[in-house]
Amino acid sequence: SLLFLLLCSLLIVIPAIRAQEEETEGGEEETTDEGSPPGDESPSTDGGGDLPANEENIPAGNGDCWSSRNGWKLPDSQLLKTDKTSVDECKKFCIETASSPACYILQIDLNSNTCYRNSKDEVTWDSLQMEPKFVQWHLHACPQ
């Protein structure tokens, strides 16, 4: 009977320990897809015009399918330089470009007003750096 009580106790304790381990692992681990940017900053949108020198992060929601991330910079090896010099031109270029890979990330160097786009289908977010003079724009799938 002592053995029976011990086995019953283990049946209760083991699932509780496993559940606690799963919660601990889920809480510490950051689950970010390689194809998705890290979500530690709030997205923003902007109507366009000249490239902003100091843009605020404003939550998206005005029907625009773009969000921006101030200070985000991917290495040049993941980008292609364009000849565009304004946010509107850059966004239009990205939307109208039918080449492969699909354009979904724009990176703007605020020092030179230069627009870059992703050069690969997938971006390696582990190589992301924080640089104050850069803004990234991300194109999202939005209903038209």
Short précis:
The protein has 144 residues and is α+β, with helices and mostly antiparallel strands.
Can you characterise this structure?
The protein is α+β, with helices and mostly antiparallel strands. The protein has a domain at 66-139: Hepatocyte Growth Factor, CATH 3.50.4. It is 26% helix and 22% strand. The chain has a five-stranded antiparallel sheet, covered by helices on one side. It is globular, with a radius of gyration of 22 Å. The model is unreliable at 27-33 and 40-61 (pLDDT under 50). This is Putative anti-platelet-like protein. Residues 22-33 have a biased composition (Acidic residues). Residues 1-19 form the signal peptide. Keywords: Signal.
Give the biggest sheet.
5 strands, antiparallel
The value of Rg in angstroms is: 22 Å
Strand tally: 5
Q: What is the CATH topology assignment of one domain?
A: Hepatocyte Growth Factor
Distance between the termini: 69 Å
Strand content: 15-25%
Sheet/helix structural class: alpha+beta
Task: Extract low-pLDDT stretches.
Answer: 27-33, 40-61
CATH superfamily descriptor of one domain: Hepatocyte Growth Factor
CATH architecture of one domain, by name, is 3-Layer(bba) Sandwich
Give helix % range: 25-40%
Instruction: Report the principal-axis shape.
Output: globular
What's the CATH class label of one domain? Alpha Beta
Listing every helix as H and every strand as E from the N terminus to the C terminus, the arrangement reads HEEHEEE
Mean pLDDT: 72
Number of helices, where a helix is a run of at least 4 consecutive DSSP H or I residues: 2
Q: Main sheet: which strands, in order across? A: 1-5-3-4-2
